[in-house]
């Protein structure tokens, strides 16, 4: 809350869900109250379709502490009017281990500036990934674990940067290797999956049992847009653990360890609305890959899973 620069008398809404865990309800209210904020708690029936009756409270807030990880587009809309949002859903152990520091913002913004200046992104890996996309037409976003600026949406505690590629530009091969991660399944891949990318879409999914499963998942939507390439980027978190999924019940965690793992490459599929595009898709896979190299206009950002730029490495 201090990194999110909560001020005395600032209007803060803590958002909970009627059927949800609301894990940090009491502690968030207590801490915010202690900081002198004008805090209220709003509990909604469905956080992904927030009822109109709750919107005046959210609209009046300067900061929303979202204990539900709402995917309602109204949250981003309110962000355009200046609402800061901070999602907090991970377990206390993960929050504590990966606790953000103020310097994380500069690291993430360095990565974001590198992406904004680039025209191409190429990704390779020893497993066989080699693909390229064009950049510049759509935007991206980043998170550093706190929300200190008007309009900024973030989630505690992970850090990463992503962007959207120009529509129809992705060409090449992505190999999701054994040990890489699939979200929202929250599963490690056991058998490598080869994706053939053509004109921004997955044209073929090849491999063994995990390729079959991934194909079945995407085919189930009967919508070609679920095969599109979505946001792309790399992880910048401190103290994240690649093996975390092995140690928590799936329902207990969101996956900040894998999604934001330092030096991962985050491949994803489906929509590009969050980057300013027009593509809607009913399914979105986040797929962190280990050990990749990421190049912007030929300049390495990540080499074999190591973040190269000293400005982006945690101290
Ligand atoms: Fe995603």
Description of the structure:
With 315 residues, the chain is α+β, with helices and mostly antiparallel strands. The longest helix is centred in the middle third of the chain and has 15 residues, at 103-117. Helix content is 19%, strand content 30%. It has helices spanning 25-34, 55-59, 73-80, 92-97, 103-117, 209-219, 256-259, and strands at residues 11-17, 38-44, 63-66, 84-88, 120-124, 130-134, 140-143, 153-156, 160-163, 171-176, 181-182, 187-188, 193-198, 201-207, 232-235, 265-269, 285-289, 293-296, 299-303, 306-307. The model has no long low-confidence stretch (mean pLDDT 97). Residues 231, 268, 284, 286 line the site of fe (iii) ion (FE).
């Amino acid at each position: 809350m201090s990194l999110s620069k909560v001020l005395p008398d600032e209007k803060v809404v803590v958002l909970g869900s009627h059927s949800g865990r609301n894990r940090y309800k009491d502690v968030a209210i207590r801490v915010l109250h202690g900081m002198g904020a004008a805090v209220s708690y709003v509990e909604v029936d469905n956080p992904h379709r927030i009822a109109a009756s709750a919107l005046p409270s959210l609209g009046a807030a300067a900061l929303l502490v979202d204990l539900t990880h709402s995917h309602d587009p109204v949250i981003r809309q309110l962000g355009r009017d200046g609402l800061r949002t901070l999602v907090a859903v991970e377990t206390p152990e993960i929050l504590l281990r990966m606790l953000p520091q103020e310097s994380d913002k500069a690291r993430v913004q360095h990565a974001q500036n590198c992406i904004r200046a680039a025209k191409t992104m190429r990704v390779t890996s020893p497993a066989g990934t080699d693909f390229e996309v064009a950049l510049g037409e759509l935007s991206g976003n980043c998170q550093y674990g706190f929300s200190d600026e008007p309009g900024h949406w973030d989630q505690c505690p992970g850090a990463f940067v992503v962007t959207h590629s120009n529509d129809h530009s992705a060409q090449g091969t992505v190999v999701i290797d054994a040990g890489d991660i699939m979200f929202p399944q929250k599963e490690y891949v056991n058998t490598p999956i080869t994706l053939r990318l053509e004109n921004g879409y997955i044209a073929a999914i090849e491999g063994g049992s995990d390729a079959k499963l991934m194909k079945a998942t995407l085919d189930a939507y009967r919508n070609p847009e679920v095969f599109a390439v979505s946001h792309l980027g790399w992880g910048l978190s401190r103290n994240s653990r690649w093996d975390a999924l092995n140690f928590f019940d799936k329902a207990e965690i969101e996956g900040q360890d894998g999604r934001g793992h330092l030096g991962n490459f985050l491949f994803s599929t489906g929509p590009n609305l969050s980057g300013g595009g027009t593509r809607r898709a009913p399914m979105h896979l986040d797929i962190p890959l280990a050990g990749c190299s990421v190049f912007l206009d030929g300049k390495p950002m990540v080499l074999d899973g190591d973040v190269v730029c000293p400005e982006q490495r945690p101290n």
